[in-house]
Amino acid sequence: MSTRLSSAPRTDAAHQSSLMGEPAAARPSEIQPGEAPDARQDPQAEQDIVIRVRDLVVGFGDKTVLDHLDLDVYRGEVLGVIGASGSGKSVLTRAIIGLIPKRQGTIEIFGENVDTLSVEARRAMERRWGIMFQHGALFSSLTVKQNVQVPMREYLDLSDELLEELASLKIAMAGLPADAADKYPSELSGGMTKRAALARALALDPDVLFLDEPTSGLDPIGAGEFDELIKTLQDTLKLTVFMITHDLDSLHAVCDRVAALARGKVIAAGTIAAMLTTEDPWLRAYFQGPRARAAIARPAADDPSTAG
Ligand SMILES: Nc1ncnc2c1ncn2[C@@H]1O[C@H](COP(=O)(O)OP(=O)(O)OP(=O)(O)O)[C@@H](O)[C@H]1O
Q: Which Pfam families does the record match to this protein (predicted)?
């Protein structure tokens, strides 16, 4: 990668036509008045929405975590989801993929309202996304290869030979050596665990990848390599990526847009450049604090113009 700064979301006509046939939609008002601008004026943003969340309310007991939240995820983009610890990033992800019930609101994925799907349609939808949980969530009693084959066995009817071949392919795509395939999760380093979880998330050739803090716990070099891997996969496979992260370097290296959660809502969504103009105190501290400035100043490792 030659640049670590964000760019506008990409479009891909062939990929678009293979996804939902919904016409481009106008951007919703996901930004509160007076807060950071988003890409509403950007014609590129008038493209298909892969995930559309409206008026989402999710809570536990007396506690409301997501409070009438709106969010759009655009086809082909890497959306970084940020917010203070406990702001509801994981809850939002789990609500979108149906692991947590919502109290109110609508969630449309690939143009379909998830509340109105038949069991078969729901399964077909689930086949189109891959999820990498924060701590991998690998089955400890299964090898890496067997973990990768779990979704394949659940959703596809393949011969053992093909399962073997496909699992090896996904393991290689995630950047693991071939001999990692027969290792158990307990035998993997943190970075290898992340890659194994990524291989499993890629098992069904997803259109959308959900990543929950993919670089947490990795050393800076490992995190940088993982960022590059995500970006390369996203480019080559034309993935839409929904990525929760606290990692400022990842935001700069990988994300096309950022959505910031606070007070149960998306308080700002747009490019990092747009985020830098925000007046919101938390966003200002996040994007203009010392760590943020260091992330912006850090040269991309492979940028010849910055090589010393
Ligand atoms: N199953 C649950 N039952 C009750 N409360 C929950 C449950 N899951 C999440 N919460 C609460 O919802 C809030 C948001 O949690 P969530 O894990 O989404 O935060 P987060 O933004 O992902 O935080 P972090 O950055 O620390 O991972 C927290 O207050 C958490 O305690």
A: ABC_tran
Handedness of CA 128, 134, 139, 145 (dihedral sign): positive
In the chain, what are the domain boundaries?
76-92+118-296
**Cβ–ligand 1 contact at 94 (below 6 Å):** no
Secondary structure of residue 144 in the 3-state scheme: helix
Ligand 1, atom 16, residue with closest C-alpha: 88
Enter the pTM of the model: 0.80
Q: How far apart are CA 230 and CA 242, in angstroms?
A: 11
The CATH class given to the 76-92+118-296 domain equals alpha beta
ipTM: 0.97
Ligand 1, closest atom to CA 134? 27
Nearest CA to ligand 1 atom 30: 86
94 and 72 in contact (C-beta within 8 Å)? no
Say if ligand 1 is within 6 A of residue 93 CB. Answer: no
Gap from CA of 151 to ligand 1 centroid (Å): 26
Closest-lying ligand 1 atom to the alpha carbon of residue 63: 5
Positive/negative CA dihedral, 250, 272, 43, 22: positive
Q: How far is the CA of 87 from the centre of ligand 1 (A)?
A: 7
The per-residue pLDDT for range 82-117, each reduced to its tens digit, is: 998 999 999 999 999 999 999 999 999 998 999 999
